[in-house]
Amino acid sequence: MGETRDKTKDLRFDQGMAELEGIVARLEAGELPLEEALAAFEAGVALVRTLNQRLSEAESRVEVLTRDTNGKLQLQPMDPDAKA
Amino acid sequence: MQLPLDLPALTSVLTVSQLNQRVRETLDAQLGEFWVVGEISNFRVPPSGHFYFSLKDERSQIGAVMFRSANQLLPYRPEDGMQVIVRGRIGLYEVRGALQLYVEAMEPRGLGSLQLAFEQLKKRLAAEGLFAAGRKRPLPFLPRAVGIVTALTGAAIHDLLVVLRARQPGVRIVVRPVRVQGKEAPGDIVQALTEISRIAEVDVLIVGRGGGSLEDLWAFNDERVARAIAGARVPVVSAVGHEIDVTIADLVADRRAPTPTAAAAMVVPDRRDLHAWLARMANGLHAGVQRQIMRQRERLGGQARHLRDPRQVLRALQLRVDELSERAMRGAMSRLRLARQQLRGGAERLQALSPLAVLERGYSIARRADTAAVVRDAASLQTGDRLRLTFARGTAAVRVDDPRIHEPDDG
Predict the structure, then answer these.
(1) What is the ipTM of this complex?
(2) Which of A40, B191, B252, B274 is the most buried (most CB within 10 A)?
């Protein structure tokens, strides 16, 4: 089982935002030849999709770091009903 | 010789040691325990760890000692010039016969001891540069995981979790519970920071606790905690107590949050804001590329407009063909007319020049009967020559009789 991570996951969110901003700026400036403009448009749309997907993960994980009886560190999901 | 007066019996004469002891016992019994206010001077700490100093006011002073067993409870360090209130007993250091104040407790005058300790540590760490703005690290925009070091119960953890999940429902949160007050708290917090840093995905830490008194918050003024925060692997947001409480942890952290809610807002962006931004960008993409396409169309000029509808093109071409053929036709017609005219004219001229037209005028053509050569000169004729004459209509054979060469006028 190899370390095949989704390439889009490696993209830091704010890096993606900066890239997208750049593409939109270039398109709005209107200096691109038509082919490049279309390529930029496609890349921009793909970015929007990726970033939106990132935000749409609904499952929040809350874990507690404790030591078990052997003194070993472990992560356990926090009981969502734990009283504050 | 006179004997000294009042020489007591040897049994009632004290030794020096006995005297000193009696003085010490008498003083202690008489004065017991008391409080004294004064200024510290001549403060020194030999390797034994005991505090030696003088306590003085404007006119008087007394030597004092505070043994290590008592002084190690002090959160602050006494300094020369400090005004203090001490609790102690009087003693006589018998070996030297010196009066000594044995101090059992000491409180700074004016400032509370904790406050004083805080001020001293703050000054010391500031001098080391631990609070410098240049040390503060920027927080990651969207952390893979948020690490939290706080008590598992209380308002702080509750507020943090609620706000974090409202802003980023998918965010991963790791909590390492700690004691947040008491003697073991600083050590626990230091260990917690080490342990939670081992989780690679944790890109930012929140350290804190709910509100309380200076004593309650004291662990976050501890030097060990301060150094652990300063040396943390990832940026640390400190959220200790209420807005008005400022602890050493707050000063040394990369960001200070006045409340847990503020801390949560610092470490994760609000998903709703990001969705809105993405929608704006998507619109920008569409508008931008539309503009590009329009611009290209314009550049192609009129042709581009025709090219848009093939039927239109066809129609245009058709019109053009008709126009041209009409012109062509008109041209041809006029050329024909011209040709005809020219022909007629030519024909007329031709006709005028035709020998037939001359014959019509009455002239005849004379030709030698034998050679058919045309006669122009009478000198070539002899009487008896046969000639054939051609008239406008018909011919005649004739015999020459009397050829004469004469002037044209002669009849």
Answers:
(1) 0.81
(2) B252
